[in-house]
Task: structure prediction
Amino acid sequence: MPRNTSVRDYIRTIVDFPKEGIMFRDVTTLFADPRGFRMAIDQMLHPYAGERIDKVVGLEARGFILGGAIAHQLSVGFVPIRKKGKLPGTTISQDYKLEYGEAIVEIHDDAIRSGEKILVVDDLLATGGTAAAGIKLIERLGGEIVSCAFVVDLPDLGGRKVLEELGMDVHALCTFEGA
Result:
């Protein structure tokens, strides 16, 4: 059996999921392998060595897995950005467009203090809609975003450009062409 040597090697592709024509990049196979998961976390941390980061913000839902592990390694707090109605306390919300319709994400209104340095984390960057909504929430609370880190970038869907136009620094461990 060939040995996985890069994070990309641990990610499986599921054809026609969730609908025909989509090549779903499944990171659960990466998470399930201890060597692959450690490799991903270490590589996601590497660009920020020596940077001040006060909190890691993870985007629902796989961003929670990565963000929690990264926050632990950095010995900083973790903050979730969740779908509307999932957080129990007082929240602020941000709507954003999906391919078919709209969605809303929320963050606790006291999760980030003004001036805190934030690293935004998620598994995959596609159109950038969810990440852009999360960025707006963080900035409304006064957080200063150091960077946005992803395992996978799907460059054909334009998410990196969306985030860079918002002034964000974007890192991804690997890319996959197509949708």
